[in-house]
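Holo model, zinc ion. Inputs:
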Amino acid sequence: MKTMSCNQLGDACKEEFHANTFDEIAAISKQHGMEMFQRKDEAHLKTMKDMQELMQNPEAITDWFENKKKI
Ligand SMILES: [Zn+2]
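Output:
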């Protein structure tokens, strides 16, 4: 069982996600991000914007994922 917090994933709150694999955590955190997006939570909106910029660069996003998997 892995535990990661929203903060560890570059987000802006202390919500924790529990799952067996990093991919599952990534999926849960994405859903959490969408919820916060709908609530117009400013800290999460900023993080999502940063992520979208990161997504423009395939190398950067791969590095990002590799780094988070090591946590
Ligand atoms: Zn969060």
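The CA atoms of residues 22 and 69 lie 6 Å apart. The first strand starts at residue 2 and ends at 5.
Archived with the compound record.
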